[in-house]
Amino acid sequence: MSEPAKTIEGWYALHDLRTMNWAAWKRLDSEERSQIIDEFLATMDQWQQTADQREGSHGLFTIVGQKADFMIVLLRPTMDELNELENEFNKTRFAEYTVPAYSYVSVVELSNYLAADKDPEEDPEIQARLKPALPDWQYICFYPMDKRREGSDNWYMLSGDNRRELMRSHGMIGRQYAGKVRQIITGSVGFDDWEWGVTLFAHDVLQFKKLVYEMRFDEVSARYGEFGSFYVGMRLPAEEVAKFLHV
Ligand code: VOV
Questions:
Q1: Per-residue DSSP letters for 135-186?
Q2: N or C: which end of the chain has fewer CB within 10 A?
Q3: What keywords does the record list, in alphabetical order (predicted)?
Q4: What is the pLDDT of residues 143-158, one digit of tens each?
Q5: Which atom of ligand 1 is nearest to the CA of 145?
Q6: Structural domain for 97, as ranges
């Protein structure tokens, strides 16, 4: 058996993708719509209070294309809190006008492929990566992925040294995108249908394509990467929610 990589985990993540039922939303009178918007903004305000206390992070994004209209990303120290927030949101009147499109449950994960022998509990940089404040960069890209387990292309049968070498090359490509693309890798083995969630942030949406394309030529992705659906979109700050929902 090859030695499993050691992982350390941080905050739990829920990616909640919804489609708007615009027809039903339009049937409301404008006063009712604005009450519902205020109620949703109050919910976002609570999320913000948690973020201000560094006890979680969240983001709201509009999604381009027909897969969804918006995505809520929530990070919390426990999965229980995520479930509570999800249930709370589902009970709001706003949620009645949304249709679930996709969701993803995972936990922020760092592996020891490239790690020095730092104590993760003591290292502020590692702590910040395990409990990340979502960057307020304009664009987001989210997709789930697996490492292949097929015939001779089985990631999980490779030796630790072999995997470490491949991950080094992966990290080198990623590093060239410093300042352009930020990544949050969340592990989801045992939690959801794929093994990882990949959440990327950029100032320029084109950098997602550049990075993901470049990685396709790198062995970790070329030989071992399998990918789910891609969701791309942009930040929807609280100040712009009313405009987004204006009909
Ligand atoms: C934005 C750039 C970027 C950078 C700098 C970067 C670096 C790194 C490092 C240093 C490490 C290993 C240590 C750790 O931190 O865990 C990883 C780990 C990982 N990555 Fe990565 N990755 C990036 C970006 C990046 C992308 C765009 C993807 C998607 C792949 C693609 O083809 O679409 C990805 C995937 C992953 C995964 C699934 C893992 C976990 C693999 C495992 O088997 O455990 N990643 N990654």
A1: P--SEEEEEEEEE-EETTEEGGGS-HHHHHHHHHHHHHHHHTTTTTEEEEEE
A2: N
A3: Heme, Heme biosynthesis, Iron, Metal-binding, Oxidoreductase
A4: 999 999 999 999 999 9
A5: 38
A6: 7-245
